[in-house]
Every structure is written in structure tokens, then in C-alpha cells.
Amino acid sequence: MPARLFTALLLLGLGLGAGCGPPAPAPRPPVVLITAGALRADAVGRDASWTARLDEFAADADWSGTAVTASSEPPVSLASLLTGASPWQHQLLSAGRTLRSGLPTLAQGLARRGYRTRAYVPSFLHGSLGAGFREVAEPLSGPAAARLASALADGDFVWLHFAEAELARGRRRRAAGDRRLARHRLLAFADPGADLPPGERDALWRVYGRKVRILDGVLGEVVDALRRGAAWDRALVVVTGSHGLELGEHGQILHGENLGRASIEVPLWVRLPRGCAGLAEPAGARVAQARLAATVAEVTALAVTPVQAPSLFRVSAAPVLSELYRGNGRNRFSLLDGDLQLHWAASFAPPEPAYYQALRAVAGGSSSRLEEPPRRLFDRLDRAFLKAPPLAGLAGTAPRLSLERWTQGGVEPVDDPAAARALAVELRRRWSRFVDRERPPGEERSLPFRGLTSPASGE
């Protein structure tokens, strides 16, 4: 079927859903999606002063728990949130890439339903993630976001992103008063071979706590404004993290370098419109964040496509798949089944010894010790990435498998080869849904969206 016809049929179907259950909410209930960068799940409840305002919202929400993001790279995880598709399906595999041709976003579907769609997000999210939004602009300050929230009305879809909890800043500060740490200094500890001194980690936790408290105040201001607005009882409000933050748990700092728990588990709160059936997943559960797209779709009477993860109006015990592509010669995959997590690392190129030094140079650090420009190193990795099968990796190599168990206090290693092999079979099965055969990224990228038919390998 031609890609253009694919898209036309899918978008036609986006207006044929049945809503979120009797009694029906408003014809076009307002939708507010609030995402926060670097908001770890364990930041909530860690200290009474860190998330006091979010704790108030949690008490008023219809559902609160945690979510597992589709990636530790924010553009990738947010693409899954807005489409309900896995990273390999939507093909926005890293920053600077675009969504697969023909795959519609939640904003596009809501725009066709007559919604006024607006996004206030960082510029690196303005590309294909801005598709369907009539207005795309930089993030708002707390007071400006509150003013917008207080005027919310039926037929509004607003996406607000906040970066107050992020530790790092780029070469230039975005605004006066931005006290985020220089990214190139933090990247000194992105290399798992560089030990993070215990005192440094404690200091980073203190800085992070201050930033979470600032974020909490901003989000509290926005929620208060929503409550004061006339549309509060009719609104669907979702608050979640776009990604977590490593503070040395896997020997690294920041995010996007591994799929450890600290990087992919984030808080999630959902407040439903009055009259909407409650979510089926038990409160406090851990769910796939990609399920939010179908959840919003069902509340707003959009059709849910087969490629989308099931909504939270259904109970699903399916393991959660996360994906992280490119990196230093490795594609990384994670499958979380209950509390047991499988890590899968596939090689697409030999690791570059100067990789982390090049990252620091691009972020504003010194490049004097590099033997070649960072761009040349990254281009070499990119070319290799496009040629190798993502799961299998280079010919003659085998994926590296390891197990961890998520505990109340963090994670612990698990030595169980049989369990690792069983989860590896399931990871491949879940990754291969809608995939007739494994292709290198350079070949897969050219294919149209495949999501109107049943999965290739079943559910």
C-alpha cells in the first residue's frame, strides 16, 4: 500500500474513537501534558521538601505511580509518548533525527478533531515532534505557564515542558539566573571508566535536590492556575518526567548513555475529566510511558492504532521495552519484566577511545588532547551505526546480556543465565513487532510506517 494512502487511512481513523467510557466527558475535553526533564521517580518522596506541591497534586489525581520511558534520550522517549510507538517504529532514534514518514502524532490527531494545539518546549524538540501543533515556542516561565493554564478551555491541547531539574546547561545560559552546571564539567564523569568521588556524588545530589524543589514550585504554580480555571473539572492533566538522571548508579552522570533504572523510571500522575471511567491499572503501579498516547486518545475519542501501546484503561502485564541507539559503538536495549531487568548491548562498531573526551569538547570543554575533530569521530560512528543490524550487531559478535533486579532501595545484579536467555527471547519478540525482518537503520529508515495491521510476530 502506498505510504500516502497509509497516512490518509490512518488519519481518517483518528476521528472514529469512542471516548473513555460512560458517562462521556466533554465533547473535546481540554488536555494538558506537562513533562519535566531529569525528574527521577525516586525524587518523589525522597525528602518531604523536594516535591511538596507535586505530592498535593498526587493526592488530587485519579492515578499516580511511575512510568518507564522508551529511552533515556528525551527526544526519543517523548516521540514514543506522543505516538505510542516504540523507538524503532517511530525511527526518531536520537537527537536531530525525525519521525518515520507517515506516522502521525497525538497532536495531529487532536488538530483534526478541532483542538487548538500548542507546545512550549525546548528548540531541540521543535522538529517533527512539533507536527500537529499550531503554535510551537520555547518553554514558558512559571508565571507565564500559569497564566496560560488559568485560561484553559474545551478544545485546548497544551504541552508544557520544564527543565528546572536538569543539572547541566550548554555553552550559553538560556536566561539570567540559570545556575545549571556546565555540561562539559559533568561529562567528565559520563565515562563509566572515570570514577565519581563519593563526595562529588553527594554534592550533586544536594544540587539536584535544590533543582527539584524549584521545579516543584513551578509545577505547583501551574496546577494551582489550572484549578482556578473554569475547565479544571473537564480537563485531562498528565504530569510526568521525560527522562531520569544518572548520578553515578551505573558509573555515569546525566542521561542518554545507558538504560539504568535512574535514567528510565520517572513519576507519572494523571487527572481525568469528571465523568470519565477510572484507569484500570492499580494506583502505584509501574507502567510503560508510551501507553499515555492511547490513554489520551481514548479520552478524546481518537482511534487507537495497532502500533500504539495499550492505554491505561486496560491492565497489561507485558514487559516494558526501552531502546538507546548509537552511543560509543553500542546499541542498548532493556526489557523490564516485573522487577527483573535485562540489559542487552549490541556492537555496531569498535568503541572509540576518545569518545567521551569528544563529547566534552562539543559541550564546551577543551579539545587540545583530541587527535581529530570531534565531528569526524561522531561521523565515523554514525556511518557504522547505519550499516549494522541493531539487535544482532556486527557479524561475528554476540550481544552482551546482563540482569538486574529493581529493589526498594535501587538495583542489584542477578546471576541467572537461564532467566537472561528467556528474557532475551521476549525482548527480541517485542522489538520485532511490526518488523518482517531485521534491517540496518539505514535501510529501515526508508520504509513507510507499518501500523495499520496486526504485529508481525503477535502480541
What would your notes on this structure say?
By secondary structure, the protein is of the alpha/beta class. The protein folds into 2 domains: 301 residues, 3-Layer(aba) Sandwich (Alkaline Phosphatase, subunit A); 115 residues, no CATH class. An 8-stranded mixed β-sheet has the order 4-3-5-1-8-11-2-12. Strands 13-14-15-16-17 form a 5-stranded antiparallel β-sheet, with helices on one face. The relative contact order is 0.17.
CATH homologous group name of the largest domain: Alkaline Phosphatase, subunit A
State the separation between the terminal residues, measured CA to CA: 23 Å
Query: Regions with pLDDT < 50 over 5+ consecutive residues?
Result: 1-18, 170-179
Rg calc: 21 Å
Q: Specify the helix fraction band.
A: 25-40%
- How confident is the prediction overall: mean pLDDT? 89
Report the portion of residues in β strands: 15-25%
CATH architecture identity of the largest domain:
3-Layer(aba) Sandwich
**Biggest sheet features:** 8 strands, mixed
**Number of beta strands:** 17
CATH class group of the largest domain: Alpha Beta
Number of discrete domains: 2
Shape: globular
Cross-sheet strand order for the largest sheet: 4-3-5-1-8-11-2-12
Secondary-structure-based class equals alpha/beta
Q: Enter the CATH topology name of the largest domain.
A: Alkaline Phosphatase, subunit A
Number of helices: 14
